[in-house]
Amino acid sequence: MKLLRQIASGVLLSLSLLFLMVAALAPFDESEPPEERRDMVLGGLMLGVPMMLGGGWLLWGLHRDWREEESDRLRSLFFETARAYNGCFSVMQFAMAANISGNMAKQYLDERAKEFEANFEVDEQGGVFYRFPLRQFEPPQDLS
């Protein structure tokens, strides 16, 4: 389905450019009568604009889906990394696990640190580690 949406958006955007080029160039075609040029402009706009909007809408949906998938992937890797390192790991360790740049990893971990109220630790060499609390909660006791 994703491939079909990619192909459809590419076709719609390509055709829209073709029709919009016709609409843009028709007024300068001296070999056609003025009524014919006007009809070419209107036809090009009437076909080109909706196709561009449709192709752009499909492309935006694909981008939105990709962002959601990437967000889910990073969240899953974040929890796996936290579990593997008992809640204490560096930007480098997360960047390697997620296969992303150090800047992206730092930004992501800073956001998760706020969300989960993490602390920071510095080792002997000056390396900064995020310490995410992995508390074990007991199930609530029956209050009756």
In short:
The protein is mainly α and 144 residues long. The chain contains four helices and three strands, in the order H-H-E-H-H-E-E.
Describe the structure.
The chain is mostly helical and 144 residues long. The protein has 2 domains: 1-68; 85-135, Arc Repressor Mutant, subunit A (Orthogonal Bundle), CATH 1.10.10.10. It contains 4 helices and 3 strands. A hairpin with a 5-residue loop joins β2 (119-122) and β3. The longest helix is centred in the middle third of the chain and has 51 residues, at 34-84. The two termini are 53 Å apart.
List keywords for this structure.
membrane; mainly alpha; 3 strands; transmembrane helix; three-stranded antiparallel beta sheet; 144 residues; Arc Repressor Mutant, subunit A; transmembrane; elongated
Strands, helices and their partners?
Layout: H1 2-25, H2 34-84, E1 88-90, H3 91-98, H4 102-116, E2 119-122, E3 128-131
Antiparallel strand pairs: 1-3, 2-3
Helix pairs in contact: 1-2, 2-3, 3-4
* Main β-sheet, spatial strand arrangement: 1-3-2
The whole-number mean of residue pLDDT values reads 91
- Low-confidence stretches are none
Helix fraction by DSSP (H/I, runs of at least 4): 55-70%
**How far apart lie the N and C ends?**
53 Å
Helix/strand-derived category reads mainly alpha
Q: How large, in whole angstroms, is the Cα Rg?
A: 27 Å
Shape: elongated
Strand fraction: 5-15%
What series of H and E elements makes up the topology?
HHEHHEE
Taken together, the total number of domains comes to 2
Q: How many distinct beta strands? A: 3
| Largest sheet, strands/sense/barrel | 3 strands, antiparallel
